[in-house]
Write a structure and sequence with these properties.
Elements (H helix, E strand, L loop, with lengths): L7 H21 L9 H14 L17 E4 L2 E3 L13 E10 L2 E10 L5 H20 L7 H13 L3 E2 L5 E3 L6 E5 L17 E4 L2 E3 L5 E3 L7 E3 L5 E3 L2 E6 L2 E4 L14
The structure holds 2-amino-4-trifluoromethylsulfanyl-butyric acid and cobalt (II) ion (2 copies).
Length: 261
């Protein structure tokens, strides 16, 4: 089992990828509103990324056809952009990735479109807080299971379930690598100790109903809640330093800890 520990030069490369991806999120942010199609968001993301000389990691990844994932309402993750227009009351996760000089950045946010009902808003709020609770649980010398435990306990205390089949992941010169970062106390993750120089994502998916998910039988990508209840997600790429977690994908204009949706 080999989890890379990145040196100073490599962490600078990771920072550059995280920064570029966060800048993309801020670029897209004003477009995420009622009436825009998810295909239009995908085109904007693709063109912005390519114009900077970078590449979207999702495009062509295991045959994935688009540059970003757009997951609306009961879609948990990996929603494929199409001609669907966002509408008032939707919650939509936009998951974006950038490759800079071979290094990956990966992050997502859930957006509220227009007036959203209170329970959907509470799901988004708790999921956002769960991400930061997970980030704060991550420290050198602590096992990966503590991230999942913190997220899981918080989500359950607020009445939401936590998706198990999709996890955070190590990231670097590959999109997905070890260690897996479960968002629940998965026993094997007790053996993995977090060290300075590790880089990984934390990306909790919380559901208003069951944690169980179903893969779309036609497109083989779109993941939905098994009971069609709402799902929300937030993701950051995290570098572990000797002083604690550094968020590599911090945006300028997006929600920061303490934000109220
Ligand atoms: N960005 C997702 C993640 O957070 C992975 C999307 S893979 C794709 O790990 F192929 F669906 F784009
Ligand atoms: Co990820
Ligand atoms: Co992602």
């Amino acid at each position: 089992m080999k989890i890379p520990l990145y040196n100073e030069r490599q962490t600078e490369a990771l920072r550059a990828a995280g920064r570029a991806n966060a800048a993309l999120m801020d670029y897209l942010r004003p477009y995420v509103r009622a009436g825009v199609t998810t295909a239009e968001l995908d085109r904007l993301a693709h063109d912005y990324t390519v114009n900077q000389g970078y590449k979207p990691a999702c495009l062509g990844y295991k045959g994935y056809p688009k540059s970003i994932c757009t997951s609306i309402n009961e879609v948990v993750c990996h929603g494929i952009p199409d001609q669907t227009a966002l509408k008032d009351g939707d919650i939509v996760n936009m998951d974006i990735t950038t490759i800079v000089d071979g290094w990956y950045g990966d992050q997502s946010e859930t957006f509220l479109i227009g007036e959203v009902n209170p329970e959907a808003k509470r799901l988004v709020q708790v999921t956002f807080e769960a991400l930061y609770i997970g980030i704060r649980a991550a420290r050198p010398g602590v096992a990966v299971i503590e991230i999942g435990r913190a997220i899981y306990d918080y989500a359950r205390s607020r009445g939401f379930e936590v998706v198990e089949e999709y996890q955070g992941h190590g990231i670097g010169r590959h999109f997905h690598q070890e260690p897996g970062i479960p968002h629940y106390p998965e026993p094997n993750s007790a053996k993995i100790i977090i060290r300075p120089g590790m880089c990984f994502t934390i990306e909790p998916m919380l559901n208003a109903g069951t944690f169980k998910t179903v893969l779309d039988r036609n497109d083989k990508w779109t993941v939905r809640t098994a009971d069609n209840s709402l799902s929300a997600q937030f993701e950051h790429t995290i570098l572990m330093t000797k002083d604690g977690p550094e968020i590599l994908t911090k945006t300028k204009d997006g929600p920061q800890p303490g934000h109220e949706f």
